[in-house]
Every structure is written in structure tokens, then in C-alpha cells.
Amino acid sequence: xxxxxxxxxxxxxxxxxxxxxxxxxxxxxxxxxxxxxxxxxxxxxxxxxxxxxxxxxxxxxxxxxxxxxxxxxxxxxxxxxxxxxxxxxxxxxxxxxxxxxxxxxxxxxxxxxxxxxxxxxxxxxxxxxxxxxxxxxxxxxxxxxxxxxxxxxxxxxxxxxxxxxxxxxxxxxxxxxxxxxxxxxxxxxxxxxxxxxxxxxxxxxxxxxxxxxxxxxxxxxxxxxxxxxxxxxxxxxxxxxxxxxxxxxxxxxxxxxxxxxxxxxxxxxxxxxxxxxxxxxxxxxxxxxxxxxxxxxxxxxxxxxxxxxxxxxxxxxx
Length: 318
Prior knowledge:
Low-confidence stretches: 1-30, 84-93, 297-311
Number of strands: 14
Largest sheet: 11 strands, mixed
Mean pLDDT: 78
Strand content: 15-25%
Oligomer: single chain
Strand order of the largest sheet: 6-5-4-7-8-9-10-11-12-14-13
Shape: elongated
């Protein structure tokens, strides 16, 4: 029995060997098939056949994962999972119960708290902090805002306020504005703050330019009571002593005229002497306008900050 098994096994092995040898011999005897250009490229890669098979397997797995993920997104699975996580966090005590607002000094706090308190009873995980910040920045007084979570249950709001620099009068309305002309709030005529008054259409948007202009004459800046933006092109400055100074158009021309006026005032004390108006729109003439009862007209020499004396005309008011 054992010998028969050995003989059959040996015969089978011999037959298999002969068969394989015949196929190999036939393959060597026949010309090989031409590979396609894709096959040649794959054959030229410096990787083994096993590595190529693994790469193909992982590529298939990646495609399957991407398809499953896309279907999950379309069905709203991530959103539902996020909502469920927010509910679990809220049930665990991670829910907005307190609001802390910092940095508010001049503005009315109520609008800030109205926005912040709208987040109470919401999960800390579902808070849309950029949206809350955007709503805060919509308030006139708010220059910047930082919104943060303080676990487990507090929403912290840090406010950076704008600085009021002037009161803008337009169409019979008074508004507090910052240096960029942003309207902060309405102002009552009976409760005017101690700030310069800017008058005229779009005068609020010229406030930064007015501040820069006054920096050329720091001695006159504390004396400024207000300014009128005339014809959307130039300033009339009004001083606390009651006089008006008409400046020419253009940043450079108006700055030069203001510096010259400051020098003349420093030498001759022009302000506070009852003069109604100083007109420097014409660079070659300096016009003083007096009240009617003091009207006279004569040329006088005055120091204007130039090498030569300039001619000043004194005329009556009107």
C-alpha cells in the first residue's frame, strides 16, 4: 500500500514536472506577446510586483472610503454627529450660563449684553464665535472685539472702544464721531461734549484730515472750537475766541497757510482782539475782517513766516 502511494505520487510529480517543462519549453519556443505602453511603464517602475499589488489595494480602499465619506456628508451625518456632541456637552454642564463683558467704558453696555445674552443656554461646543464677533463689530462704538469661552459655562467678551474726537453736525442732527468719521451715537444739543464741532456734508469723513492739518499748528489745536467743510474742498476753522480762519484748498496749501497764521498769532496775538474773520484763501493776500463799527481798510505789514512782508487788508464784516 505504501509503495503504491509512493509510485502514484512520484508519477504525479513527474507528470507535473514534465508538463511544466513542456509549457516552459513551448514558451521559449514561441515569440512573446508585445506589452502595451502602460505595461512597459509599469514594468519600468523600480518596485516589485508585490508592492504594486499593495499600492493598488490601498488605492481601492481609499476610493471606497472617499465614496462612503461623500455619501455621509450628503446625508448630513457629520452635522448630526456634531449636534449630538453639542447636546451631550450641554447635558454635561458645558452650556453658556454666564456672560462677562470687559472694556466698556463710554458706550451703552445694553447692545453688547443683548448680543451676548442671546448665546445663553447654548452648548459651548455649538457657539459660533466668529458670528458673535461680527455682530459686536456692527455696533458703532466697537472698534474691535474678542470672544472666547471660559469652560465650563462662561462666555467672555472683550471690547475695544473707539475714541470720540468730534461732534458732526449735518441736516440738523448731532452725532459723536471718531477720527475715521464713524458715527458712534447721537448727541443732544443740551449735552454737547467738550469736543470740536465739524459741520457740513461728508465733514465726518474729513475728520482724520482735519486732525492731521491741526498737527501742523499744535499751539492752535487746543483753541479750535469747530470747523466747517466748505464745498467739499476746504476748511473754515472757528476758534474758541470767536474768530473764523478761511484756509485755501489742498492739503499742502492749507497746511502752509495754517503754519503762517500760527506764526503771526504768536508774534501779534491775532486771536482774541475782536477780529471777525481771517481770510487766507489767496496766498498773496491776508484779509482781516472787523465788525462794522470798527471797519477800516488800509494795508499793514505782518509777519507770515516768509522772507518778505505780506500785505494784509482790513475790511468790514459782511
